[in-house]
Amino acid sequence: MNLVSTMVGLSIMGAAAPSVVQMTLAPVEAQKRAQSFTQAETLAVTFAGKAEADQSLPDIPQGCSVTDPIDSVYRVDCNAGNGKFQSKASRSFRIVPEIDDGGSGGRSFLFETPTKYSGHQCPQNDRWGVYGTNTRTSACKPQDLWTKQKYLASDPSSWLYDANNHNGWGNHPDY
Question: How far is CA 110 from CA 94, 100, 158, in A?
Fold first, then answer.
């Protein structure tokens, strides 16, 4: 009986051996792919962050390439690993001095100018209402635009959207 059981067991293991080996190696392969992706991701994120911080293109690391800007947006693609363990990560970034979004007066802004304001002043933690206070149909009024005196005393370089000629008050003198 032991001989028959042994032979049946060995036959099953012989047939199942490739699957068992594959299951045994799967975690090792997954770890190697994850390590390659982590390296590629680190290269891409570090490069994009440095480019935005320095406002210029830094030296391109080995394994990475940078595309020509499209609408002032660059893309860095980084590869790490070899063969079936090769991974690729991409990041997009902008270099602010190169941005030309066609804003009025030759300036560009991060946000679109609201079409209509509510009667409410924007809160202190969202002074221009662009981080959640404004909706498509109604926008809070920034403190810099609450009165004509505040508008004229405001610094246009700190505006988050084009507020020139707000409320028909004419062009801002520093614009």
Answer: 12, 11, 11
- Model-level pTM? 0.47
How far, in Å, CA of 116 to CA of 13, rounded? 74
Whether 64 contacts 76, CB under 8 Å: yes
Q: How far apart are CA 110 and CA 129, in angstroms?
A: 13
For the chain, domain boundaries: 2-98, 105-168
Q: Is 126 helix (H, G, I), strand (E, B) or coil?
A: helix
- Structure tokens belonging to residue 173: 């003198």
Residue 10 CB neighbours (<10 A): 10
- Which pLDDT band holds residue 77 (cuts at 50, 70, 90)? very high
Among residues 148, 145, 144, 120, which one has the least CA distance to residue 134?
A: 120
